[in-house]
Design brief:
Blueprint: H1 6-15, H2 19-26, H3 31-46, H4 51-61, H5 66-69, H6 75-87, H7 89-106, H8 108-113, H9 117-124, H10 129-137, H11 141-150, H12 153-164, H13 171-190, H14 201-213, H15 217-230, H16 232-240, H17 253-260, H18 265-271, H19 277-284, H20 289-301, H21 307-326
């Protein structure tokens, strides 16, 4: 804590308070003080400062603030509220522009990291893979994952490849690329009503999984490890989504047969309940006659399963396929 500046401590303390209290504390403060604190808050947010760090600072100042720190807040929304509550709407807009420029001058990648994944993806859409790789390598791994999934699949693969081969790039070149994308983001967000599509998290991670599954094991594991360092749950989800129940129809018969031998007939019967006829036929054509009879027997004995139970059974069927994929033993039907 001793290494933190007073300005940063104030900003982190404000992060631990509710918006109304923080706004009230800043009222009456000189414009330069409000602007300086707001800039520091944006810097902390863009750098990914956690609420836990803010709470630690709050404890140092006043233990009575610990309860209000629970739950935290969305920092960008807080900055907006603080500025408008303390300086008025018109003055706040002017101060926000100054703050944005100051943040850009300090580090363009901090400003990029404060944008939404969809906005960053739009800004990168027409850039060469090397430029995209530079940006993705200089923002947080989780944000990089979400941006990557929104890009064209071919571009995504090329960018990921570039990320694994960084080469000798000068800091001046990196900053120039950052400033270029930062400018595009400013232009994008200044256009009122500019449409950009947000994708559901699972769909986003599925796209990332598909991109990574096309890489060789060493590169795939390296990128998964990068994601895992930042968010273990996201990494596990991406890994699981590399092979899904719907992918069964794309798997070669021999690989599928090997995996299905490891699945209990009762589990298979439940997994097939109400499933897509194409998937059901694919599975039935790759188990023995005796196994098919056992599945039919289990189906006749069981009561109607809940949807959750069916999904859980499908996950158990898919798990041996995921294990085979991880071991690079799973074969997919080549697309014509």
């Amino acid at each position: 804590m001793a290494s933190l500046s007073g300005k940063r401590k104030v900003a982190m303390l404000l992060m631990s308070l509710d918006q109304a209290t923080a706004t009230e504390l800043l009222k009456g403060q000189p414009q330069e003080v409000v602007q300086s604190v707001a800039l520091e808050l944006s810097h902390l947010d863009a750098a990914g400062t956690s609420n836990e760090e803010a709470v630690n600072v709050a404890k140092e100042f006043c233990t009575s603030l610990q309860k209000s720190a629970v739950g935290g807040m969305h920092i960008r929304s807080f900055v907006d509220t603080v500025l408008k509550g303390s300086a008025g709407k018109e003055k706040a807009e002017e101060m926000q522009q100054q703050m944005q420029q100051a943040l850009h001058d300090k580090d363009p990648f901090l400003a990029i990291g404060a944008a939404s994944p969809a906005q960053i993806a739009i800004s990168l859409a027409n850039e060469p893979p090397q430029a995209i790789a530079l940006v993705l390598s200089n923002i947080s791994p989780r944000l990089s994952t979400e941006v990557l999934s929104r890009l064209n699949e071919d571009i995504s693969k090329k960018a990921v490849w570039r990320m694994t081969k960084p080469g000798d790039i000068s800091s001046k070149t990196i900053r120039r690329v950052g400033e270029m994308i930062c400018k595009k983001l400013v232009d994008l967000t200044s256009e009122e009503g500019m449409p950009y599509e947000e994708t559901l998290p699972k769909e986003i991670l599925r796209k990332v999984a598909i991109v990574l599954s096309g890489l060789d094991k060493s590169k795939r594991d390296s990128l998964l490890e990068t994601i895992q360092v930042n968010d273990d749950a996201v990494a596990k989800t991406v890994q699981a989504l590399m092979v899904t129940w719907e992918d069964i129809i794309k798997i070669e018969d021999r690989s599928l047969q090997e995996a299905l031998r490891k699945v209990d007939a009762g589990v298979l019967a439940k997994a097939l309940y109400g499933s897509d006829p194409i998937i059901a036929e694919k599975i039935r054509s790759n188990i023995s006659q005796r196994a098919a009879e056992m599945v039919d027997e289990e189906t006749g004995l069981m009561s109607e399963p809940r949807k959750k139970e069916v999904l859980e059974a499908q996950e158990l069927v898919v798990q041996p396929l995921r294990d085979a994929n991880e071991a690079e033993e799973l074969l997919f039907i080549e697309e014509e």
